[in-house]
Design a protein that fits this description.
The complex is a heterodimer. Chain A has helices at residues 2-13, 16-42, 55-61, 67-72, 75-96, 99-104, 110-147, 156-184, 188-211, 217-220, 224-235, 253-277. By secondary structure, chain A is mainly α. Chain A is globular. By secondary structure, chain B is α/β, with parallel strands linked by helices. Chain B has 2 domains: 9-220, Rossmann fold, CATH 3.40.50; 224-286, 2-Layer Sandwich (Alpha-Beta Plaits). Helix content of chain B is 35%, strand content 28%. Chain B is built from 12 helices and 13 strands. Chain B has helices at 47-54, 75-78, 96-107, 112-120, 136-148, 166-181, 193-199, 217-221, 233-244, 265-274, 289-297, 303-306; strands at 9-18, 21-31, 36-40, 62-67, 81-84, 154-158, 185-190, 202-207, 210-216, 224-231, 249-252, 255-258, 278-286. In chain B, the strands form 3 sheets. Chain B has a 6-stranded mixed β-sheet with strand order 5-6-7-3-8-9, with helices on both faces. Chain B is elongated. The chains are: A mainly alpha, B alpha/beta. The interface between A and B is medium-sized, with 26 and 34 residues. Bound molecules: adenosine-5'-diphosphate and magnesium ion. Adenosine-5'-diphosphate is lined by residues 18, 21, 23, 41, 43-49 of chain B.
Chain lengths: 281, 309
């Protein structure tokens, strides 16, 4: 298992697509977390951005005290979609390149191989989350210094909870991408299906349920995206008013966490079972 | 049977069905230690399917398979087997060296082995280039290098000369012969008769999923026959058929071929001349493996029987 894990890290580290995805996630976090709000703040009251929200509140949103909101606020939707793409390309290209057969004839069993692969992915996701956190921290330090605003940081426990929660949200979507890639032995189809799910179906369902079919709320509250949003909501200091799209308190933090654990386990088991006996050709 | 002569590969009654296609149909195959075994058959005969089963990539529909005394795909079996199945598949964005590095991690072999195998396939000079920039010949050689990483007792190579230019083929065949000379057991599939004739000790011929023959290559090669040009040809054919049996006589282009030992040439000649047939040519020849092959793999309604009437 250790050998498989090390091999996986080597493959991930040297693959430019991985860094492109990470870069995209980071840049999007900075644009929506800092650049746009700060521009809104700097260009004054008349701007649409600050419509209805006092300027001082806008500034507070980009200071170190809210760094965790900006680090993981986008995870349930866009970074989640990027994580799903990561899982799908890394696992799916083993099929499209035919490298699965090359590896399996070397030595590792199928479960060991997939296990090492998933662990490698989770490791890289942690690196990604830390990278986004560091970049967001630097931005908020810069803004605080420029505006002469206070540099109050969240407590270490809050930071840790936020980082772990964000990592788990990405993990959930990445595992979904990996499971779809194993199921379809492909890259493109899982990406298409997964992204349509995250960006389209989740939001549509939530909208339809809240406006037309309130009796089906149990269904929309059981969706992976809704639970990811609820987890992020519960580990950050956001309010319903300033939460980004996809982040809301659909369910409690505890329930979100356990639902996500169930989904992750299901994705892993599905991938492992499908992978176990099937012909590799 | 003691440990040194027990077969490394024992396959019996092996069948693999894909939907309606019977890709492999009751194949029996035995590979002995130290031999270079040629698994010969035309495209689509079922070679790759059989080799995939031997390496645990796919499960047989029925039949028994033992590789190195274990079940195919078991970790301890794979640890002693190196293989390249169908086309060489590697990570295109990594160098040849990095590809082997990570395979060495998977295979749990020391990194020092990587440079040995790169030198063995003569790829050390280009090891740091990306795999996607390699020529087909280099890709095949990297595939063989990967197969040799574990310093395996059994090497399984599926059409390793496919798509190579003549020089590439010659180098690859030399490499395989060296593997055999080193005492490794090699199971090589090919659709090229000449190749098997050059490299292998023993050959199993597969056609449409069935094993049609298993021979020592030398036995096949030394089978002799007489080539006869005589007029009228049909009378010559019926006289020879009567004297030697239908199985010994067949027509090839405008000559008759007679399967008898060369020292019976005079006897055959006298038979024809006494019947008033003009013999313009009579000599003995080694039957090419190609002839044997077509004889074994063509079905009964083949071209040879159509001119009987
Ligand atoms: N995955 C598959 N699904 C369906 N049919 C297959 C599959 N793999 C091979 N076949 C069929 O099985 C037969 C044998 O193929 P193969 O073993 O690749 O032949 P060879 O390697 O001797 O050229 C062919 O008719 C091929 O079309
Ligand atoms: Mg083949």
């Amino acid at each position: 298992m250790l050998g498989s894990y090390r091999a996986e890290l080597l493959k991930l580290r040297k693959r430019s697509a991985v860094w492109v995805l990470f870069g995209a996630g980071l840049v999007l976090s900075l644009i929506f977390g800092y650049l746009l709000p700060y521009l809104g703040y700097a260009t004054g009251d008349g701007n649409q951005q600050t419509d209805g929200i006092p300027r001082s509140e806008v500034l507070r949103g980009v200071l170190p005290e809210r760094v965790m909101d900006n680090t993981i606020g986008g995870f349930p939707v866009f970074a989640g979609a990027l994580a799903l793409v990561l899982g799908a390309i890394v696992v799916g290209s083993e099929y499209t390149w035919g490298t699965l057969k090359t590896i399996l004839t070397q030595r590792p069993g199928r479960t060991t191989l997939l296990g090492g692969q998933l662990l490698g992915l989770l490791t890289m996701l942690a690196v990604w989350v830390l990278g986004i956190f560091v970049a967001c921290s630097l931005c908020s330090i810069g803004i605080a210094a420029a505006e002469g605003a206070p540099m109050d940081w969240p407590g270490p426990l809050t930071l840790l909870k936020g980082l772990a929660g964000g990592w788990f949200v990405l993990t959930l979507w990445c595992l979904a991408g990996a499971a779809l890639a194993v199921a379809f032995r492909n890259v493109a189809l899982p990406i298409g299906l997964g992204v349509v799910w995250i960006l389209g179906i989740e939001a549509l369902l939530a909208g339809v349920v809240s406006s037309l079919l309130p009796d089906l709320r149990f269904l929309s509250d059981a969706m992976p995206g809704a639970n990811a949003g609820a987890l992020v909501f519960s580990v950050t200091g956001m309010t319903a008013a300033d939460a980004p799209p996809g982040v809301r308190d659909a369910v409690s933090g505890g329930r979100a966490l356990s639902t996500m654990l169930v989904y992750s386990a299901v994705f892993v088991v599905l991938a492992m079972v499908t992978n176990r006996r099937r012909d590799v050709s | 049977m003691n440990a040194t002569t027990a077969p490394l590969v024992e396959v019996s009654g092996l069948t693999k069905r894909y939907g309606d296609t019977l890709a492999v149909d009751g194949v029996d195959l035995t590979v002995l230690p130290g031999e270079v075994y040629g698994f010969l058959g035309p495209n689509g005969a079922g070679k790759t399917t059989t080799l995939r089963i031997l390496t645990g990539l796919i499960a047989p529909t029925s039949g028994t398979v033992r590789v190195l005394g274990g079940a195919p795909g078991q970790a301890q079996v794979l640890a002693r087997t190196g293989s390249m199945i169908e086309s060489p598949a590697f990570y295109p964005y990594l160098s040849g060296l990095d590809n082997l590095r990570l395979l060495a991690e998977y295979a749990e072999v020391p990194r020092t082995r990587i440079h040995e195998v790169l030198a063995l396939v003569d790829l050390a000079g280009r090891a740091k280039d990306r795999f996607s920039t390699y020529s087909l010949g280099m890709k095949q050689r990297l595939g063989v290098a990967a197969a040799l990483l574990k310093d395996p007792e059994l090497v399984i190579l599926d059409e390793p000369t496919n798509g190579l230019d003549p020089a590439g083929m010659r180098d690859m065949r030399r490499l395989i012969r060296e593997l055999g000379a080193d005492g490794r057991t090699v199971l090589l599939s090919s659709h090229l008769l000449g190749e098997v004739q050059q490299i292998c000790d023993r050959v199993g011929i597969i056609s449409e999923g069935r094993m049609v023959a298993e021979h020592l290559v030398d036995d096949l090669r030394t089978e002799q026959e007489l080539v006869i040009r005589a007029t009228p040809r049909e009378s010559a054919r019926s006289i020879l058929t009567e004297a030697l049996g239908a199985a010994a006589v067949h027509q090839y282009d405008d000559t008759l071929r007679v399967k008898v030992a060369p020292d019976r040439a005079a006897e055959v000649n006298r038979l024809l001349v006494e019947a008033g047939i003009a013999v313009s040519e009579l000599h003995s020849t080694e039957r090419a493996l190609e002839d044997v092959f077509f004889e074994l793999t063509t079905t009964d309604n083949g071209p040879e029987k159509t001119n009987a009437g």
